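[Automated response] Your request has been received and processed.

Submitted sequence:
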Amino acid sequence: MSTDKTTSKPQSKTAVEKRSFGKTPDGTTIDLYALKNKNGVEADIITFGATLVSLKAPDRSGNMADVVLGYKDIDGYVSDKAYLGATVGRYANRVANGKFTLDGKTYELPKNDGNNTLHGGIKGFNKRVWTAHEVSSANGQAVRFSYLSKDGEEGFPGNLKVDVTYSLSNDNALRIEYSATTDKDTVVNLTNHAYFNLAGEGSGDILGTELTLRANQFTPVSESLIPTGELRAVKGTPFDFTTAHAIGERIEQDEEQLKFGKGYDHNWVVNRTRVAAPALAAEAHDPKSGRLLQVLTTEPGIQLYTGNFLDGSIHGKSGAAYNRRNAFCLETQHFPDSPNQPKFPSTVLKPGQRFHSVTIYKLSAK
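Generated structure:
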C-alpha cells in the first residue's frame, strides 16, 4: 500500500479558500473548500457528500470552463438522485439482490435500484455531512474530508472510519486519496461520481469526445446491470477503446450489452502491473476545446457511464438542462457486485487493515 503523505498541519504559503454553501433542511451548515493552483485551475468541494461541485480548467486557447456537472446551491445536492460529483460508498456501484454473505452471515441492504442496491443504499455517503480541514500535502493545496459510517448503517457491518483527501497540484492534477479502517469485517468500494463534459458543463452532448481505455477486458452484465462473472475480451466489440474512439461512434449499435446499459454503463478491467502506484487507465479528449483528461488510479476497474439516464429534468449551475449523454463518468472502482462474485478482486476489509486507493484526474489541452 502507498504511504499517506498528508498531515494535519495547515499549509503556510497559500490558504485554501473556505466559504459557506448554504444549509441543509435540518439547519446544518455546509462548507465549500476551493483549491486553486498557479494556472488558475480550481476545484471546489463541499462537505455534503464530500462532493466535487466544480472543476475549472483552460482550453487550448487558455479560456476557462467548468468541466463537471453540478448544482448552484445545496438544495440541488440534497434532492439529487444522479450522484453528481459525489463521493460514493459504502459500496459503489451495484450489489445484486441487495444482499451479500460475509463470514457465514447474510447482510440485507436497502434496494434502491430495482432488486439491487446501488451506490451504498438509500442514504449513502453522498447524502452524509462530512467534517473537513485543510492539510499540508506534497501534492499541492489539500483538504481532507472525514466520515464515520456506523455499524449497521444502510445494512453494512462495522464502524468504518473514512478519509477522502482532495489535492490540486500545479500540473493541473486533482488527486483523490481514499483511506478507511473498520472494527469488524466489512466490504468497501469507494469512488467519485464526477460527470465530465470537457467542452464545459451545459454545453451539449459528449458523443464527439475521443476516449481511450487501457483495458483489454470488461465485465458484461445481465439485463439488471449485474456482472455475469465473465471477464470478456473487448477486441472486436463496441467496448474496445484500446485505441481512441469517439464515445458516440458505436454507442447505438445493435448489441445486447449496449441495450442493457442504454449505452455504456459498464466496468472495464484496467491493464496494470503495479497495484500500489496509480496507473493510467483512461484518456478523454474533446476535439473542439482541446481539453484532455487523463485518469490514473490504483483501482482494478473503471466504470464508463455515458449519462444515459439524464433526461433534462436537472438544470445545472449555468441554468442549462442536462440532457441524455450530456456528460460521461469514469468511476474508478473495484468491480460491481464483488461481495457476491468470488472470482473478482476482493472488497473485504478486516480490522487492522487499511483500505487505501488513489485516483488522479489530470487536465491539459492540446
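Summary generated for your ticket: The domain at 17-365 is CATH 2.70.98.10 (Beta-galactosidase; Chain A, domain 5). The longest strand covers residues 355-365.
If you did not submit this request, please reply to this message.
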